[in-house]
Write a structure and sequence with these properties.
With about 400 residues, chain A is of the alpha/beta class. In chain A, about 40% of the residues lie in helices and about 20% in strands. In chain B, α9 runs parallel beside α11. Chain B has a two-stranded antiparallel sheet. Classes of the chains: A alpha/beta (about 400), B mainly alpha (about 290).
Chain lengths: ~400, ~290
């Protein structure tokens, strides 16, 4: 390549580069910028997509009127499901884009990384999903969490065991990430309290092809209850391979995350029938806007939504509410507004309290759902149940 | 004992697929002298082709081997022709610019597939996906067994091709000594393109065989590129028989590790074996073979 050509090409690239980097100033002035960090690519992209779609839906509804005469602008960063990238995304949003606050946060490990940056830079961060317990146990006063911590996911299930299922033994299989480890520890604790004996407790690496080595051990131990904390495809493979090995506990229970997504049923097929899962939200809840959210989401995106989406949708409303109430857009004023939050959203009542070791944590009831005839039905607690539970689990050969 | 046998069966079956992935990379390694870091991504592309064949034409995943293998051969051939071989002999800061190019190809393939199919998880649900039969207490997953035997058949065909045909001999000659091969009148460039195509076709077969067992999303490639890399090194770079041994070894030890140590350390066990082989059998498992 001649030197001339090279210079021209280089010039073009530089020009393109500067054009991409300069924010359009006119837009920047009359909007309030909020940073949202979600896994939009990578292995958790499924969840990121549902959440981002819901954020966008809520944003469009809110921006019809705007906040204090200004529109909210969401700056989206992709954490790709990796904590180090989440960290640099947070740093970019806080130092370069000067967002007034942060939202989002899906995977626990990523959320933990983002929260660390936000606290250090003293910018409020409203977490909508990242649920490992320790995130709100650090005494970080700029970090607020909308959804319950993972240790509380199975509260409804525990109640169900006590009153209906009465299992004596259990096996715990969990993904060896912050989310899985944190959830499994707590499940073990509550089992001990309820007198359920843990036969097997084992973590696995996300993305395995063959879970049989693990499942054979479970089969040999013959537990009454198998509790799994997994993301969607691991969940689906675990169920399919359990059927293959003909493992028949009295009930299969999933700890949220993968087990409630429509993709779980699509990829698992009939094997998913009768699987229980913890769930944080169902469209039939009497929360204002819950049903509308569910129907509108289906109308706009042509897909089902579930609790992750509802979290994001409500988080957007909480953000708008805070910005409305904050005296100014300084981090300290926003933090105070966040601390004083008390509104009803589609996801439930949002009010940040401190209890136990936790600070700025929203406390919400949880539910137990079950896949029945291809639909996710709420079965426990009774006052919210949409249908009767099926128990015990039918053995694979009888189906 | 039952647990041990079941573990071994699981390991051998998965090892067959690993071997097929590894052979493709080994061939490319032998002839082109580079590690193909787009290997898993090529496999991912073939899985998407299988998925489309299944969803839109109702084609059985195993039957679509006749589409995915030629398709990926052609894609691989032209990737080799226009993107990889032209880099030979170019001056660059790093000597391994072909390897860097394969990384780039991998990223492009992932993003193109994401653009077309979104990041959604997909899987092929056939009538036999969950079928299993048991001998005694040991259960055999039907798609895995099928994949294992098809992998053997493909490997045998590959050997016949490499041993008996002119093109096969030319590939082996180029792998052994490039300059001598050119002197013997072998069209070395074309052979190089064809080898990349062949490597891609083999990993395409592995992808198609894997789809009924596993699932699919655009970022799936990375972990299999890593597996293929480990297998290639385990087998001794460039040795096809070594790659088969390497694939089986990796499968068996991963499985044993998952049963007797911890499922969470499955990959770690594979890596420990990898290190042990590097330390005690430098040059890889091909030392135990004659070919």
């Amino acid at each position: 390549m001649s030197r001339f050509k090279l210079t021209v090409w280089l010039g073009c690239f530089l020009l393109l580069g500067t054009m991409m980097m300069t924010p359009t100033p006119a837009l920047a002035q009359d909007t309030i910028k909020v940073g949202i960090i979600l896994p939009l690519t990578g292995e958790k992209a499924n969840f990121g997509e549902i959440e981002w779609n819901s954020f966008k839906m809520a944003l469009d509804e809110i921006n019809k009127t705007g906040v204090k005469g200004k529109k909210i602008e969401l700056l989206r960063e992709d954490d790709t499901g990796k904590p180090d990238i989440a960290r640099s995304a947070a740093e970019k949003l806080l130092t370069k884009d000067n967002v007034v606050m942060l939202g989002g946060g899906y995977g626990s490990s990523e959320t933990y990384a983002i929260a660390g940056v936000a606290q250090q830079k003293k910018i409020p961060f409203l977490i909508n999903t990242g649920s490992a317990d320790n995130i709100t146990e650090q005494g970080w006063n700029y970090i607020f969490r909308l959804n319950p911590p993972v240790s509380e996911y199975d509260d409804a299930a525990q109640n169900f065991y006590k009153e209906v299922a009465k299992p004596k033994t259990a096996a715990i299989l969990y993904e060896n990430t912050l989310f899985g480890t944190s959830g499994s520890k707590d499940f073990e604790k509550s089992c001990k309290a309820a007198g359920i004996q843990i036969l097997i407790k084992e973590g696995y690496e996300h993305g395995a092809i063959d879970f049989k080595p693990l499942l054979i051990k479970v089969k040999n131990a013959k537990p009454d209850l198998i509790y799994m904390i997994s993301y969607v495809m691991d969940a689906s493979l675990l169920m399919r391979q359990s059927m293959e090995l003909d493992i028949n506990p009295r009930l299969f229970v999933g700890g949220g995350a993968g087990f409630t997504l429509p993709e779980f049923y699509r990829n698992t097929g009939k094997t998913a029938e009768g699987v229980f899962s913890a769930d944080l939200w169902i469209p039939t809840l009497p929360n204002p806007g819950a049903k509308e959210y569910y129907n509108n989401y289906k109308k706009i995106y042509g897909k089902d939504t579930e609790y992750h989406g509802a979290e994001a949708y409500s988080a957007m409303y909480v953000i708008a509410d805070i910005l409305k109430r904050a005296k100014s857009f300084s981090p300290e004023d926003i933090r105070q507004a966040l601390a004083a939050t008390d509104i009803m959203t589609a996801f439930g009542r949002v009010k940040f309290i401190s209890y136990g070791k936790k600070t700025n944590q929203n406390k919400l009831p949880v539910y137990l759902v079950q896949w029945i005839k291809g639909k996710l039905e709420c079965v426990w607690p009774k006052e919210f149940a949409t249908t009767n539970y099926i128990f015990p689990h039918k053995s694979w050969k009888e189906r | 004992m039952f647990i041990f046998i079941q573990t071994l069966v699981a390991g051998v079956l998965i090892g067959g697929l690993y071997a097929l992935i590894g052979i493709g990379m080994t061939l490319i390694m032998g002839v082109m002298g580079i590690i193909n870091l787009a290997h898993g991504q090529i496999m991912m592309v073939s899985m998407y082709i299988t998925l489309v064949c299944f969803n839109y034409f109702g084609m059985d995943p195993y039957l679509s081997l006749v589409i995915t293998m030629p398709a990926l051969f052609i894609i691989g051939y032209y990737l080799g022709k226009y993107l990889l071989v032209p880099l030979i002999g170019r001056e660059s800061i790093l000597p391994e610019n072909q390897v860097l190019m394969t990384v780039g190809i991998g990223i492009c393939l992932t993003e193109i597939m994401r653009f077309i199919f979104t990041s959604n998880y997909q899987s092929v649900r056939t009538g036999y996906s969950n079928k299993a039969f048991s001998l005694g207490e040991v259960s055999f997953n039907f798609p895995l067994v099928m994949a294992f035997f098809l992998a053997i058949i493909i490997t045998v065909l590959l050997f016949l091709f490499l041993m008996k045909t002119d093109i096969g001999r030319a590939i082996r000659a180029t792998a052994q000594d490039k300059d001598a091969a050119v002197l013997m009148g072998i069209p070395q460039r074309k052979i190089t393109y064809a080898t990349y195509g062949l490597g891609a076709a083999l990993t395409a077969a592995a992808g198609t065989l894997l789809l009924p067992i596993y699932y699919l999303f655009p970022d799936l490639g990375g972990q299999f590129t890593l597996k293929a890399f480990v297998i290639t090194i385990l087998g001794g770079m460039g040795s096809t028989v070594g790659a088969i041994l390497g694939g089986l070894t990796l499968g068996i030890f991963e499985s044993l590790g998952a049963t007797y140590i911890s499922m969470g350390l499955k990959d770690a066990v594979g890596m420990v074996i990898f290190l042990l082989v590097l330390i005690f059998v430098p040059g890889g498992l091909k030392r135990f073979t004659k070919i």
